[in-house]
Amino acid sequence: MTESIKTDKELQIRESMEMEERNAKKIPYPKGIFFIMATELSERFSYYGMRAVLTIYMRNVLNFGENKATSFYHIFLMLCYGLPVFWGVLSDSWLGKYKTILYVSILFAIGNITLTLSSIPPLNLPVQEFFFVGLLLMAVGTAGMKPCVAPLGGEQFILPQQENQLKHFFSLFFFVITIGNMISTVITPVFRRDVSCFEMESCYPLAFGVPASIMLLAIVVFLSGRSLYVITQPSGNMLVKVVKCIAYAISNRGNKSGNRSSSHWLDSAADKYDASLIADTKGLLRVLVYYLPIPMFFALYEQLGSRWTLQATRMNGRIGNFSIKPEQMQVSNAILMFIFLPFFQYCIYPIMGKCGVCKKPLQRMVIGGILAALSFSVAGIVETKIEPAIRSRPADGLTVLNLVNNVPCPVSIWLNSSSSAKEPAFTIKPNDFLTLPPLNFRDNEIPVLARILNENCLNSTIQGLTGQWRGNLNVTPTAYQTAKISFSSDKTLSVKPLPFEDDFIKSKDGNARVRFVVSRENSGFKLKGDEGIMKVTLTSVNGDGVTKSFLLLRAEGDAMFSDTDEVPDDRYIVTLQTNKRDLRLNSTYKFLNGGSYVLVMHDDIPEGEVRSQMVTVTPPNNIHILWLFPQYVLMAWGEILFIVSGMEFSFTEAPASMKSVLQAMWHLMNACGNLIVIIAAQNHGHNFHSQASEFFTFAGLMLLDSIVFAFMAWGYKYVSTEENKSVVVH
């Protein structure tokens, strides 16, 4: 009998579902959805395209330090995720979703145009002022679209007949967001790096201008669909009602008229608010307690566009003739999400279910937090491999000295004139250079003894040379400097510093930085004589013969030298040019990404020879950018387990009427996470000795956060109902 009743119920349910499907087929698919989707795709393209290059623009063009650029980047994100609460209230209570989307889209477009104009040098606008105004308008604009676009799309469907189509809409909506993210994050860095404009090697006006144009198109598309939209009138915001209910309960708690004998403090509002609102608010607060550990995860996750992007600028992105831009690594997150979301859904979760582990959303969130901590641990390990190639200014009073040996014999060096020692402090091979450890130069000088020990080598070159030099080497304190060892015009060994400090800072764009020096100590050629201006020309070997020239503009003592300039990673033919002749160096030189070089040339024009030594002041970016891939994979796994499971927990455990409130709170948790990063960036110099230590600190905090979250989740009792699981659009 029982089985018969059960079978009848199943038949009724099946027939009801079939009836709903037939009714849904009769109702045409809302045409306005396509306009809403196009608007969202355009806005996401514009937002993610601008955001991809934002940190690098602030560092490279606005000349903000990395900590300052990181702070402003996360202030922007904090506004993007904090202001949706305001716009949600304004939309639900006064403007309505359609007008809100239209107004904020215009604000967003104006902000994007303002940002673009600020990046165009010929306009001579106050760059920083226009930049911050544009960024603020864009933050306000995108914040207004977050709580409105998806709900407006949901309102186009007739429920319950089109409930399945509504679910497909939200899946498609997520797909559109991801596609907009992926396309813009790949294309915009190409506009920035591979296109030249306004006499600049990069083109930020194009990188900002294309997304701005797409956003203007989005407004036109959105307005075009006006007659097709189903528009509901504002009916009040649930968050406002919840806040008022909580405030009244707190204020009424101590009144005699309040329900002081009630089991829950919210019951004190029963004399003004209906029981259903109070019950739903209790359910909301029960879920919000578990939001407390969420900001720490977002503090890690949002650094993909700041700290991790800056980390990528210090790495080598070259793959054959193709180069991965640092900001393009951000797109790997979206790609990995596409790959792993179905893998987790149809493979990992079923396996976990069969094993009886991590079956509940809170449990999966704990694992996601641990994976995020692991991703930052890996980022810290990678950073420790990067940091040896990064140079910082020497400590006060210390000098890092490069000695270049232009003598065709090994030269031994004793510091402090300690010639009585049996073994020299250093020995430099012929036509080579040696970097000495940081030295403390008292009164900007240090006694040095240089000697050629191998007399046979000396006698086999030019007769009558003296193979020893003793004297005080005058250098610049707290700097990097290069000194050359050569024979002077009186045929004696000489050690002299070059008349400039070496540039040790890496290129912000990942190029090689190079300076050229011509030493004319022992030739009869006059530096300011009849030969005119000298210059060095580089011709790339692998880059279609691209050439670049460097004028030797400055002459001090017996050397002429150029300013430091940047060249793309390549192997180059080096030619020393004067008005009378071109002297090509016998060797080709490879200038690598991130390296800083001084090419010292000793030319004997009468003999038609140019001898040279290349000094590597700062090592190149020798760690490949693909070593970032493991940390991106771990973060993608953490994102799936933490964010997706967190949204599942929120929307199944809270009352159906509170879903819009939870969406606002979720955005606020993201804003709080960005605030954590801002605080860390502002205190970077005080609390962290290196970027690696900051990464490890975030990893430790996230691990601790996950442990606390695990204890919180241990005793949670899931009380979800079918009503809570139903789709409700606000």
Mind explaining what this structure looks like?
This is Peptide transporter family 1. InterPro entries: MFS_trans_sf, POT_fam. It comes from Orchesella dallaii. It is a multi-pass membrane protein. The structure is a single chain. The chain is an alpha+beta fold and 730 residues long. The protein has 3 domains: 28-233, MFS general substrate transporter like domains (Growth Hormone, Chain: A); 292-388 and 625-730, Growth Hormone, Chain: A, CATH 1.20.1250; 398-618, Immunoglobulin-like. The strands form 5 sheets. Strands 12, 15, 16, 17, 20 and 21 form a 6-stranded mixed sheet that branches. Strands 3, 6, 7, 10 and 11 form a 5-stranded mixed sheet that branches. It has a 4-stranded antiparallel sheet with strand order 5-4-8-9, with no helix packed on it. A hairpin with a 6-residue loop joins strand 13 and strand 14. The longest helix is centred in the first third of the chain and has 32 residues, at 163-194. The radius of gyration is 34 Å and the shape is elongated. Residues 523-531 and 720-730 have low confidence and may be disordered.
Would you state the CATH class of the largest domain? Mainly Beta
Our Rg estimate from Cα atoms comes to 34 Å
How many individual domains?
3
Q: What name does the CATH topology of the largest domain carry?
A: Immunoglobulin-like
Calculate the terminal CA-CA distance, rounded to whole Å: 44 Å
Please name the CATH architecture of the largest domain: Sandwich
